[in-house]
Amino acid sequence: MEQVKLPVFRLINMYIAQACFTFIYIYLLSCIGEKVATQLKQELFESIMKQDIAFFDQQRTGELVNRLTSDVQDFKSAFKLCISQGLRSIMQIIGCGTSLFLISPQMTLTMLLIVPTVIVTGTLLGSLLRKLSRDAQAQAAKTTSIGEEAISNIRTVRAFAMENEECELFCQQLEEASRLNQRLGFGIGLFQAGTNLFLNGMVLATLYMGGYLVSNNQVSPGDIMSFLVATQTIQRSLTQLSLLFGQMVKGLGAGARVFEFINLESSMPIKGGKKIPYHSLVGDVTFNNVTFAYPTRPQQVVLKNFNLYLPAGKTVAIVGSSGNGKSTVAALVERFYDVDEGSITIDGVDIRELDPSWLRGNCIGFINQEPVLFATSIMENIRYGKPGASDNEVIEAAKLANADEFIKSFPEGYSTVVGERGVTVSGGQKQRIAIARALLKNPRILILDEATSALDAESETIVQNSLDNVSRGRTVLVIAHRLSTVQNADMIVVLHNGVIVEMGTHDSLKAQRGLYWNLIRQQEVSENISRALG
Ligand SMILES: Nc1ncnc2c1ncn2[C@@H]1O[C@H](COP(=O)(O)OP(=O)(O)OP(=O)(O)O)[C@@H](O)[C@H]1O
């Protein structure tokens, strides 16, 4: 009885130990996998956030999101699989390979002779498959970006009744992705079939050679059996590895796409450089012989030898017909792009020497035509202008921006959540929340890029009042579409093809009867027509 109990206890101990090791191994692996994925996502997101604006002019949001989600996921899965099954298979191959050597060095060496051919073929096929995998992943990312664009612009899609066209476009891209993935599957299948053929060939070769060696009494039949068993274990492990190979190809492709952006250096730093202390910041802005073309369209020069002086505390308006470079002037002051030639200075300091995060975060307030709000409360949206501002500071900024009254009229007041991109508030309300947000940082320089052009007449008056309120005592650059809003500016600059053609006050420019006068007349005619049309 005692003799039976002993092996049973041993077995139980072994099973318990095996369960413990299985638990530890799976848990550890999932911890490592999650840590790797989290680290990658974090680094990738940080790197994307720090890229130049020109990078975002080129990339589609959906593709970037795809790299952050699917690609990191594919890399993590492949990583976990390769570590778990890959390590086990490699250990088995090493162990059984050693046994093979011990049993018959002669047979083992003969088998090893064909290994280099297999490695070379495998490497060639591997690089081909990696390319196929990269193409398939890029196509999947493109498909996601098209879907994402349609969903996030659903109002425009609906307004143009383009649902079917969007579905069709999405399906086309999806089918292309599926075709590329099928081609990849074909390649991986071919690779695995080839591997199996080779492995079975190895068994046959062993039998053939073994038979020869037994007949010459060089090895015993027992040795042949042991050799076959070890060969088959190696065969199973190699089959396992070849199955893993497909996953590895996908993982490497995904990893390459993730690391491509992690390792991408932006040409413009986010932080670092001079800061002008608030009490000595005057707010003079000067464009000195600036020439600029967008990095994505280098052959189209938008500004050529552009000179402009924005005196501290004054309001300068830039007018001109569409596409003449007005918004570009604003983007350059914000240093969204660096000028190609010349310089832009604030109080005589080249903005390239200034700390960009100070420049954008403290020195300049920017309000554009369609300000974007985040899907959080109004309080948090305004606080975005100065993280750490107290509730009272936020409310004061909202009062100055004529926003306090309507915010309080909402049942949930400042806690009202505005929906994605602020869809649940009106255009004028969104604009005033954005003004409060820009105002909270108390900027010396304010840029208003067509800030009222998207509003109806009534909202425009309210928002214009808020803007007049907040403009006092600051250097203001107004990019104007409606000429009526800039009549009181200290100086109006008329831009044509990136060159200043007229400059002066509203009255002096009108008296000149030049381009500005023409623009006013054009606008009056179009306003009369729209009034007549009702
Ligand atoms: N991100 C960009 N990448 C490449 N080209 C651009 C970019 N933004 C604007 N452009 C081009 O630069 C030129 C000037 O554009 P800009 O937006 O400055 O004109 P604008 O006078 O503000 O026009 P609008 O009154 O219609 O807003 C245009 O030809 C435009 O197509």
Automatic annotation (TrEMBL):
Residues 285-522 form the ABC transporter domain. Its main location: mitochondrion. GO terms for cellular component: mitochondrial inner membrane. It is found in: Mitochondrion inner membrane. The chain crosses the membrane at residues 12-32, 109-129, 184-209. GO terms for biological process: oligopeptide export from mitochondrion; potassium ion transport. It holds the Pfam family ABC_membrane. The keyword Mitochondrion applies. Residues 14-250 form the ABC transmembrane type-1 domain. Keywords: ATP-binding, Ion transport, Membrane, Mitochondrion, Mitochondrion inner membrane, Nucleotide-binding, Potassium, Potassium transport, Transit peptide, Transmembrane, Transmembrane helix, Transport. The keyword Lipid biosynthesis does not apply. It is a multi-pass membrane protein. One of its GO terms (molecular function) is ATP binding. InterPro entries: AAA+_ATPase, ABC1_TM_dom, ABC1_TM_sf, ABC_transporter-like_ATP-bd, ABC_transporter-like_CS, P-loop_NTPase, Type_1_exporter. Belongs to the ABC transporter superfamily. ABCB family. Multidrug resistance exporter (TC 3.A.1.201) subfamily. This is Mitochondrial potassium channel ATP-binding subunit. It comes from Cryptotermes secundus.
